[in-house]
């Protein structure tokens, strides 16, 4: 991507209302813009990050046998009334009437729709187990949207649902999802804890949350250093570990994912039944699993930044390499940089080519702000000595390599950074 043909509106100053570092840097780096409280536009670089995160999610969901579907955002009230959540959920739910005066709502989650679908498509024990997932918009009327994309009213969520014959099948799918979530978080470059949690409005018997340590988080977890016990502070009933009596350490975190054993909470009221081997009717046993892609991106920024800007994990960076010619008014240098850009792209490296006619200092500051994993500088030494500068954003390490070896060395560095 050439900068001069792109929308990358970087800012020198932080937004006045920013509370979290990720909010400040996402706005300054031109990833997002706020349309209204808790409602954001994702600009091209922000969208590329989201696409990277969603790509990792899809790979890991497909790996465990997940099948992607898309469910509506607009739901008839009857589904939520049948499960009782129409009345138990308060003002967080957006409610409306269509022109026929029928009550509707905007989906904040999709358990009801999944159970409705299962009631119509699952007939026999031979149809089970199933894993259905989507990456879809959710809407919640948050009382206090804050911290940029960490707490919004409209957001993207990967939600998946397991359908099983019995509790044993649910237990297997639950563990399969837990391991898939571990791989997703690790691939996205996050440090995280898996903690026991309260099922809350989702219902069911068992729940776990995936928590990324960060001072910007609104949640706290209790951790035991001796036996690895971990739980949301709401469940940690004392200052000592319930397993080994060791003192608990409290840490502030961002919730980036959650998993729930729903059991038959939604199957019974929505009549999601199947016939077992004996021809007897049984309720489908369900699990529900959610991940917030935007929260993953924001948590990565919270955990990986410095005083200059973002330090992206390679797997979810909008581009792998920042190509920076220091003076595009020098025709020879500009032509050399363009040739290098074409070669890098041909070799499969994702490149942001800063072909702007700007002062070098502006370009270098923007490069640090955007935080792409690797920077390649084409300057006067390139013309005089045939050398380019390569700099790793994470460590600040720099090296000069011959122009003829620049692409292969960039490949090697990026491969190492991906480990």
Name the features.
419 residues, 9-stranded mixed β-sheet, 5-stranded mixed β-sheet
Describe the model:
This protein is 30% helix and 29% strand. The chain is of the alpha+beta class and 419 residues long. The strands form six sheets. Strands 3, 7, 8, 9, 10, 11, 12, 13 and 16 form a nine-stranded mixed β-sheet that branches. It starts with 20 loop residues before the first helix and ends with a helix.
Amino- and carboxy-terminal Cα gap: 25 Å
Average pLDDT value? 95
How many helical stretches?
11
Shape: elongated
**Strand content range:** 25-35%
User: Based on DSSP secondary structure assignment, what is the total number of beta strands?
Assistant: 23
Provide a concise account of the structure shown.
By secondary structure, the protein is α+β, with helices and mostly antiparallel strands.
What's the topology here?
Elements: H1 21-28, E1 32-36, E2 39-42, H2 44-63, E3 67-68, E4 74-76, H3 77-83, H4 85-88, E5 95-97, E6 103-106, H5 111-121, E7 130-139, E8 154-164, H6 167-187, E9 193-196, E10 206-213, E11 219-224, E12 230-232, E13 248-263, E14 273-275, E15 281-283, E16 285-291, H7 293-303, E17 305-306, E18 309-310, E19 321-325, H8 331-346, E20 351-353, H9 360-370, E21 374-378, H10 380-385, E22 387-392, E23 398-402, H11 406-417
Parallel strand pairs: 3-7, 19-20, 19-21
Antiparallel strand pairs: 1-2, 4-6, 5-6, 7-8, 8-16, 9-10, 10-13, 11-12, 11-13, 13-16, 14-15, 17-18, 21-22, 22-23
């Amino acid at each position: 991507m050439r900068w001069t043909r792109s929308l990358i509106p970087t800012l020198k100053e932080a937004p006045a209302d920013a509370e979290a570092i990720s909010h400040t840097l996402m706005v300054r780096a031109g990833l997002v813009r706020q349309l209204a409280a808790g409602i954001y536009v994702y600009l091209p670089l922000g969208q590329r990050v989201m696409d990277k995160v969603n790509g990792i999610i899809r790979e890991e969901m497909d790996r465990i046998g997940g099948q992607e579907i898309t469910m509506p955002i607009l739901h008839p009230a009857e589904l939520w009334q049948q499960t009782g959540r129409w009345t138990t959920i308060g003002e967080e739910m957006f409610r409306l009437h269509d022109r026929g005066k029928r009550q509707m709502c905007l989906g904040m989650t999709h358990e009801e729709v999944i159970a409705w679908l299962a009631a119509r498509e699952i007939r026999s024990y031979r149809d089970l187990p199933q894993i259905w997932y989507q990456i879809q918009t959710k809407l919640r009327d948050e009382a206090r949207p804050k911290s940029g994309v960490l707490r919004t009213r409209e957001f993207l969520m990967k939600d998946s649902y397991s359908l099983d014959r019995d509790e044993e099948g649910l237990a297997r799918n639950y563990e399969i999802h837990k391991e898939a979530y571990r791989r997703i978080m690790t691939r996205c470059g996050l440090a995280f804890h898996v903690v026991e949690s309260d099922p809350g409005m989702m219902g069911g018997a068992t729940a776990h949350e995936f928590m990324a340590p960060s001072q910007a988080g609104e949640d706290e977890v209790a951790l035991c250093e001796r036996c690895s016990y971990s739980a949301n502070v709401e469940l940690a009933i004392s200052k000592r570990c319930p397993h080994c009596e060791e003192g608990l350490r409290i840490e502030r975190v961002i919730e980036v994912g959650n998993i729930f054993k729903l059991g038959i909470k939604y199957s019974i009221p929505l009549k999601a039944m199947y016939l077992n081997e004996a021809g007897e009717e049984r309720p489908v046993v369900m699990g529900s699993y959610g991940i917030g892609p935007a929260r993953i991106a924001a948590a990565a920024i919270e955990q990986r930044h410095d005083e200059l800007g973002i330090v992206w994990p390679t797997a979810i960076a909008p581009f792998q390499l920042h190509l920076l010619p220091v003076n595009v008014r020098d025709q020879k240098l500009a032509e050399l940089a363009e040739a290098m850009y074409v070669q890098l792209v041909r070799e499969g490296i994702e490149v942001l080519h800063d072909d702007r006619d700007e002062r070098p200092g502006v370009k270098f500051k923007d490069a640090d702000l955007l935080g792409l994993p690797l920077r390649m500088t084409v300057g006067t030494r390139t013309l005089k000595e045939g050398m380019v500068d390569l700099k790793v954003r994470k460590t600040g390490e720099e090296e000069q390599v011959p122009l003829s070896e620049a692409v292969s060395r960039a490949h090697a560095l990026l491969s190492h950074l991906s480990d």
